[in-house]
Structures are given as C-alpha cells and as structure tokens.
UniProtKB/TrEMBL annotation:
Record has Lyase as a keyword: yes
One Pfam family matching this protein: Pterin_4a
Name of the gene encoding the protein in the UniProt record: phhB
Organism, scientific name: Bisbaumannia pacifica
Lineage: Bacteria, Pseudomonadati, Pseudomonadota, Gammaproteobacteria, Oceanospirillales
InterPro entries, sorted: PCD_sf, Pterin-4-alpha-carb_dehyd, Pterin_deHydtase
Enzyme class, broadest EC rank: lyase
Protein name per its UniProtKB record: Putative pterin-4-alpha-carbinolamine dehydratase
C-alpha cells in the first residue's frame, strides 16, 4: 500500500485548507496516472481506468463506492463499457484537499 493511501482523511469542511501548489506537486508524484483538471473554476483530480467489459468497470465502481463511504468523501464516477472516469475534489471547499489525493491513492489500490 502506498504511504498516501494509508493516511487518515479529515472531515469535509468548507473552511479546510486547500493544498498549496507545492503540496499538490508532491502528492501528484505518487499518483502519476492522475491529472488535475479545472471545471467551472474548481480544481479536480481525475483518472480514467480501463477494463475488459462493463461488468468489470461496474465492479470497480462499486469498490470505489465502498472506500468513499468508509471515508465519508465521495467522487464523481462515470461508468461506461470498459471504462470508468473517477474524479475527486472537495465539494464543500470547491477545490482540492489532501483528502482527494489520499482517496485517489486508495482508488489506485482497488483497481489493481
Ligand atoms: C455531510 C457530508 O459528510 C459532507 O457533505 C461530505 C460528503 N462527501 C463529500 N465528498 C466530497 N468529495 N466533498 C465534500 O465536500 C463532501 N462532503
């Protein structure tokens, strides 16, 4: 398990600190397949996972759902045939918190 994946999540709070550009680069180094995208002025962390069929994509989607529920922090999930797009951000603070990087690392683990 990567070190990031084992870190504890903080509660989702509007006044929680967004990651600094330096922190962002440090965490991204552990998440080479993820990219930062900006939508409606909100920074988000996104990765596309590919699978052999819809059933595998759906099973993965449910595993991500389980880690989200366990953490109380929830991604956007787009499940398609052979493909799932996972997008993490902190809705309350309209940006990226360390939680998002931790959950991205956990997402990588349930994909393996
Ligand atoms: C009350 C509840 O815990 C909050 O609304 C949580 C739920 N899941 C969440 N998930 C994400 N990604 N961001 C949030 O701000 C958020 N808020």
């Amino acid at each position: 398990m990567s070190e990031l994946a084992q870190e504890k999540c903080q509660a989702c709070r509007g006044d929680a600190p967004q990651v600094t550009p330096e922190e962002r680069d440090t965490y991204l180094a552990d998440l080479p397949q993820w990219q930062i995208v900006e939508r409606d002025g909100i920074m988000q962390l996104e990765r596309v996972f590919t699978f052999r069929n819809f059933q595998q994509a759906l099973a993965f989607t449910n595993r991500v759902g389980e880690i989200a529920e366990a953490a109380g922090h929830h991604p956007a999930l787009l499940t398609e045939w052979g493909k799932v797009t996972v997008t993490w951000w902190s809705h309350e603070m309209k940006g990226l918190h360390k939680n998002d990087f931790i959950l991205a690392a956990r997402t990588d683990e349930v994909a393996a």
